[in-house]
Amino acid sequence: TRGHEKLQIGMTLLLRPGYDWFFTYYREKAIALGLGMSIGDIFLAMLSREGDPSSNGRNMPEHFSSQALRLVAQTACTGTQYLPAVGMAKAVKRDGSDAVVYVSSGEGATSEGEFFEALNWAAREKLPVLFVVQNNGYAISVPQARQTIAEIHRIARGFGMPTFDLDGTWFEPMYQTLPPVIDRIRAGHGPALLEGQVVRLDPHSSSDDQKKYRTEQELLGLRERDPIFQTEAYLVKRRILTPEQIAEIREQVEAEVNRAAGEADAA
């Protein structure tokens, strides 16, 4: 999730947790956290422990689900969340609700047929879907230039919906752009798509070594766009927080995480 967390937390603040529906993909720990899933429950899922509320330890890590939070479990097959999300949007519209259905993926999954089918279906029937593509430039080790010839937000615009290309490492572009877009979806005017430009700070997975296909210069440059460090620098520069206060927050968070991890490991 590192590099994606600002966009994800921003979406949980702009939408309505427990009311709107969330169809995530396997890189959205911050969505689960932002919706209200506890750190302890996240660790139970990661460690496949009994008591894990997502699947009682039977699903893969990062496959979060919660009926109360309206967070729908996904599969490990990329892109498969798109069509069920559109089906949910069809049910939401039938029931007369103004709930929004959030569905997302990385840019790699947009090369698959389910994505195009979902865009077509949602646009044709004016369904309340907010498509979010978290573009970190790589589908595992394959850069976007090797996947598709066009920008994703331009592709989606061809299906007749408003689309937006934003910096996903800052809150401001989302807050300046998305509230009226979400209101439009709630009012029954059909879907929209956000392509959020984010960064993938870590390898794709624990079995991946991104130094084999990314240069040292590129990896060093990513640090400047780390959403967390950008925020820290912003707050210090404007004297909203001191470095000492940020260090104290980090210590508190680390203690909370270590405690939750220890409890889950002992389960």
Total number of β-strand segments?
Answer: 8
Percentage of residues assigned to helices = 40-55%
Structural class by sheet pairing and helices? alpha/beta
H-E order: HEHHEHEHEEEHEHEHHH
Global geometry: globular
- Mind telling me the C-alpha Rg? 19 Å
Intertermini distance: 25 Å
Provide the low-confidence segments as ranges: none
Mean pLDDT: 95
Tell me what portion of residues adopts beta-strand conformation. 5-15%
Biggest sheet character: 6 strands, parallel
Number of helices: 10
User: Could you give the order of strands across the largest sheet?
Assistant: 2-1-3-4-8-7
Supply the key terms.
42% helix; 267 residues; globular; single chain; 10 helices; alpha/beta
Could you write a compact summary of the structure shown?
Helix content is 42%, strand content 12%. The protein has 267 residues and is of the alpha/beta class.
Detailed description of the structure:
The protein is α/β, with parallel strands linked by helices. 42% of the residues lie in helices and 12% in strands. It contains 10 helices and 8 strands. It has helices spanning 5-14, 29-35, 39-46, 82-94, 113-124, 152-157, 171-186, 216-222, 227-237, 243-265; strands at 21-23, 71-72, 101-106, 129-135, 138-139, 142-143, 163-167, 192-197. Strands 2-1-3-4-8-7 form a 6-stranded parallel sheet, sandwiched between helices. Strands 5-6 form a two-stranded antiparallel sheet. The mean pLDDT is 95.
